[in-house]
Amino acid sequence: MAVDIKNLNHTQLTELISKAQARQDELRKEKVGKLREKVLAMIKAEGYSFDDIFGGARGAVTKRRGTGAVAPKYRNPADPEQTWSGRGKRPRWFNDALKAGKKEKDLAI
Region Disordered: start and end of each range (predicted)? Predict the structure, then answer.
């Protein structure tokens, strides 16, 4: 089935592209599913389990993600409920305090 894209307007092209991408995703998922079935069948045919081969790596990844929040290192003197761990983008109150002449050690908890 050939589609003459020269006769399509912008909306039709956008719709065609989104449908093609959705179909491409479906085909990829089908292929991954078939490959997964093949690998599991090979493992089972040899008399092993997934964990025997891969050492339960699925659990190790999950444990790493659950590190939780980091303890705060800095506190806003004007509003003690506002804290910052020192990671990521500096909060506005922290930058404002520095501009006002405070030092990082003055804001440390």
Answer: 70-92
